[in-house]
Amino acid sequence: MAIEPYVAAVCQVKRLPVRVGGPSKIKENIEAGLKRYAQFIDYCCAGGMAGKGRFSITGAVRLVTFCEYAITGSYTPADPTDHRYNNQETLRYLAIRIPGSETDVLAAKAKQYGIYVAAANIEHDPAWPDIHFNTGFIINPDGKVILKYQKTLTNNPTEIACSAHDIMDKYINPITGEPDPFPVVDTEIGRLALMICADLGSPELPRIYSMKGAEVVIHLTSGNAHSMGGPRSMGITEAVKRVRAYDNAIYFINSNCGPTPGAWYPEEQISGHSAIIDYKGNVLAEDNTGGEMVVRAEIDIESARRYRARYYHNSITQLRSELIAPYYMKPVYPANTFLKDGPLAAGLDERQQKYFTMALENLKKHEHYYRETDIRQT
Fold it and tell me: Which single residue of 5, 215, 290, 358 could bond 300 by disulfide (Cβ 3.0 to 4.6 Å)?
């Protein structure tokens, strides 16, 4: 059955500093943040956006997205004199169950308006009681969590969450029950997949999703600058988002936070710049202010499907996977690190530094080139 065009709404909302006031205030601050998100959903589906706005959008809002760390915030302290949470403190104060009481607030709104809701947060998965994940999730109009993606590019200097790669030999996706770290779900609004923040720096993820049939990839982030080399490279980041969409013939929805206290780079503007990009790499809607707002645009799945059914100007059909695959067979960043050594204690601890060093050494093993003096004349 054909899917009618619909509106996707990116809620670029300021994340409340949930740690302000100490641990005793965290629950109260989380509830205030969720109330704010519920108000944004009301605005998208029944308020100022209904039947109005740029681009003469007339379709119904069917998809609403929020940012990374949407519910409980991140490791970054609201108080600069405070320390960054370690793994156990993160599990105690910031990690939630998905689904759980917090996501139930979003689920109620999904049911109320018949929409899909996507967000990401630090998760405490009962299957792994001693570690935490940075988990993206999608809730359907029945209020059910239908997809969970646990961020791939973790263990960077600002994050200590577990990746599926860190427990690869035992990893099972909690929704599908399969050893699949890159889930794609087929829904009433198309086939959906998720990426999180620094995953933007991996061209492999959207390529895998596209090959699995994804039509809309939702990139949930909390400060785009971190994804591509620091706060002064925002222009590069904006270009990369368009390339990810074009190379893989997917709608690419970039969902960032609004201005948020306690950022990694407080002197820079890292929030905002949320965008919706079509399957040809065209920017349909974007934010250039960094403030709180809703970015929205029409998603036409049937148009994307017609485009993907063509051979010419379709990068996926040009993929020579047999030539490429051998270059990915040698490891770079080591797998199963959490199975071997347990979770990381804190950002940039000695064990993390050890694996960074190993990754750099492994990368050198990939180098294979010849000297110009070795060229044989024919």
Answer: 5
Q: CB–CB of 161/132 below 8 Å?
A: yes
Would you state the structure tokens that stand for residue 232, as one six-digit string? 């002064």
Q: Whole-angstrom Cα distance, residue 40 to residue 44?
A: 6
Split at pLDDT 50, 70, 90, the class of 156 is confident
Checking phi first, is residue 8 left (phi over 0); if not, alpha (psi -120 to 50) or beta?
A: beta
> Which two structure tokens, joined as six digits, stand for 270?
């890292």
- Does residue 243 lie within any of the structural domains? yes
For residue 144, the enclosing domain spans 6-322
| Six-digit token string for 152 | 């791939």
Question: Rounded to the nearest 5 degrees, what angle is found at the Cα of 256, between the Cα atoms of 8 and 203?
Answer: 90
| SS3 at position 231 | helix
Strands, DSSP E only, in 188-306? 190-196, 216-220, 251-255, 275-277, 283-286, 293-299
- Same domain membership, residue 360 and residue 226: no
**Identity (one letter) of the amino acid at 94?**
L
DSSP code for 189? T
Shared domain check, 343 and 284 = no
Statement: residue 15 has pLDDT above 90: no
Strands (E), the chain: 6-12, 61-65, 116-123, 133-139, 145-150, 185-187, 190-196, 216-220, 251-255, 275-277, 283-286, 293-299
Residues 125 and 25 grouped into a single domain: yes
pLDDT tens, position by position, 312-339: 878 888 899 999 999 999 999 999 999 9
pLDDT, position 37: 96
